[in-house]
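Protocol step 6 of 9: fold each sequence in the batch and record its C-alpha cells directly after the sequence line. For illustration, a two-sequence batch is reproduced in full.

Sequence one:
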Amino acid sequence: MDGTDVEFTVRSFRPSDLPACRVLYREGLLGGKLAENDTGLDIDDIESAYMKPGNHFWVAETSAGEVVGMIGVQHHDEGVGEIRRLRVKGDWRRRGIGSKLIEAAVKFCHDHQYLKVTLDTFVEREPAIKLFEKFRFHHSRTRNVQGKELMYFYLDLYTGEQQRRPEQQQHHHHA
C-alpha cells in the first residue's frame, strides 16, 4: 500500500449513486452468491429504506468518481443497529474499502448510542466473515436458511471499558 494506490473516500449516499449501488448489490458480494429469496427491495429505494433518522447508507467512491463499495445501517430494535448490504466491487477488493465501510457504519452506531451492532452473512462468504472478525464481531448463532448456513454476528459497543474515559483514570496519580 503506497501513495500510488488510487484514493477512495467513504461518503453518504446520494440519489445519483442508485444505479451503481444496484449493480454492486448483485455483483459486489464478498464471497458466495445472492440468496434466491433476496429481493433487494431496499436497494431499489435506498433513499426511503436508509436515509432517515437512525438509519444510514454510505458508498465508497474513488478519486475518479466511481462508486466501488457500499454499506447500510438499519435501526429496528431499541439500541441496535443492523449492518446490511456490504459490497465491494470485485477488482477493488483487498484495498481496505470493506474495512473503511464497516468503520463508518460502526461509528454511526456508536454516535447514535446504539448498544449493539448486528449483521448476518452466509457461511460461504469467507472474506466477509474475516472482515467482521477483524472488527471483533462475535458469532452468536448459525441458522439454516434454504439449505445454507446463515451466520449471525454482533458487536457490543457499550461495555464498561469503553465508557471509562482515560482522563478519569489519570487522576489517581496526582493524589
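Sequence two, same batch, same settings:
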Amino acid sequence: MYNFSSTFELASINDKARLGLLSDLHFGNSSLVKAELQRDLERMDQAECEIAINGDVFDLVLPGDKRFDLAGLDRTLIQKGVKPIDAAIELAYETLKPYAHRIKFIGIGNHESHVNKHHHIDVTKILLYRLNQLPNVEIGYGGWCGYWHVRLKRHNTIVSWVQYRHHGAGGAAPVTKGMIDFNRMLVWQGDIDGLWIGHKHNKFVDLATKMNYNRQHRKVSTDQVTCIMTGSYLSTYGTDEGADPSYAMGWNLSPQQMGGVIVELRHDAEQQKYQRTLKVGCRVIL
C-alpha cells in the first residue's frame, strides 16, 4: 500500500482544490483513443489539477500471452522498429511529459503486474524514472492501492478529505458496472470521504451515505462517501477516429463511457447555533 498526502493553500472560502483522476490508459493498444486522453490531460492542466493515475497505464499483452492479438497492437509501436515494451514506454513518456509537473503519483494495475510477473520488468518504475528526470517533477509510485489525504488550508484553519483507491479487480461487470465492488469496500473501509477504482472500464459516480456515532459527544451523524469509477480510453466498437474495436466487441458488451474525472474540493461552512464549523464539500466533474 502506498499512501500520499497533499496540502492546498486556499486564499478565500471561495477557492477550490482540484484533483484529476485517470486510469486505464492502455498505451500500446490499437483501440486507444489518443485524442480523448489528450483532451482529459489538457482540461486537467487548465484546471490546475493535481493528477493521479490509478493503474493500467500500459496494455502490453505480449507474444506468448494467450490474449495476444497482433491486430490489438498499436501500429506506432511496430513502426518505431523497437521492442513493444520500449516503444510503449516511449509513447507513455511523450504523452505525459507536458503534464508531468502536475502528476502526484502513478499506480499499477493487472496489466503492469502481469508483465512484472512473467517478464520481470516493472514498466511503471521505468516510466517514473524517466519522468522524474524532468525539472520540477517528483511523481510517486502508487502500487495497487492506498490512501490519499488531501488537506485544505485557509489562514489557520485546516480541513481534510481522505480517499481510498485501488486499481480494481474482477470481470467487466456489464450489468452492475462495478457497484457491487463499492458496496463491498464500504463494509470494511472506515473513516473515508471517497473511494476510487478503475479496471472495469465503466465511468460513473455514486454517492453513498455512512452513519457514524460520536462516542465523546453522543451524537449521530451521516457522512457522504463519493464513489468514483474512472473509465478507460479504449473504443469499444472502433467508432472513434484512429482506433480499432476493443476486445469488448467480441464479448458483445455495450459501449462504455471514456475518461477520467475532476474532483473539486472546497471549504463548506456549517452553522449550528453558536458554533461554526468547516468541512470539505466535494463535487465531481465528469
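Proceed to step 7 once all outputs are recorded. Observation for sequence two: Residues 271-276 have pLDDT under 50 and may be disordered.
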